[in-house]
Amino acid sequence: MIKHNWDTHLYDEKHNYVFKFGEDVINLLKPQPGEIILDLGCGTGHLTNLIAEAGAEVYGIDSSAEMIEQARLKYPALKFDVMDATNFKFEKKYDAVFSNAVLHWIPEKEKVVECVFNCLKPGGRFVAEFGGKDNVKNVITSIRKILIANGFSNNTQYIDWYFPSIGEYASILEKTGFRVIYAVHFDRDTFMNEGVDISSWLEMFAKRIFEGINEDKKSELIELIKNDLGPTNQKDGKWFVDYKRLRIAAVKE
Ligand code: BEZ
Questions:
Q1: What is the DSSP string of 147-189?
Q2: Taking CA atoms, which of 28, 98, 224, 236 is between 20 and 30 Å from 78?
């Protein structure tokens, strides 16, 4: 699994819409008192905490040690551990697995679905939201164009997010033994917080794409991308990212 280094403060302070939108996914999960729920890719634990507030027993896992450290500091009463989403296994079986804004980071999607399936009770549910087909298309088109135009074609290999269609992801779920009970692929232009522009989004989420490029050049490329996206990704002077979400619920038969 690819390792990402997260700036947890930037995430919590400037990009907190990631977990604010996640509250809608919790409404689809409908956690019940007494249920045992796994939060897969829990980040700094905000949604894990909301699931716990609904009365469920919840366990948050994330591949990032930085995220887990923050989650433990913020929510000391909850249980969190560093774990690889492509390789986890528990004795205990779960009523549900929840995941928000995580699965697009993991190219080994079949392995993730297999691990989720194996840790659920029969009848257990998997509720997830992540980037769907054509997610952040303007941003990707611009990054690719600017990298190539400036002699960094090699770095385009790092544009490797996984954004499937409903059909593609539902097939993986069904092959594994899930029955898909809900699936929607919708547009959600997502406005950046006040005073935040696309540069900050790129610094936070596209860091790996600039691997091996020195800081000055990277800043120059980010400025070029920002200028390129100015006409398409701003409304009334506010920056937005052209998200397309895939929201899905499936049951282990
Ligand atoms: C997303 O949540 O859709 C996303 C976040 C970071 C990079 C790409 C996509």
A1: HHHTT-GGGGGG-------HHHHHHHHHHHTEEEEEEEEEEEE
A2: 28
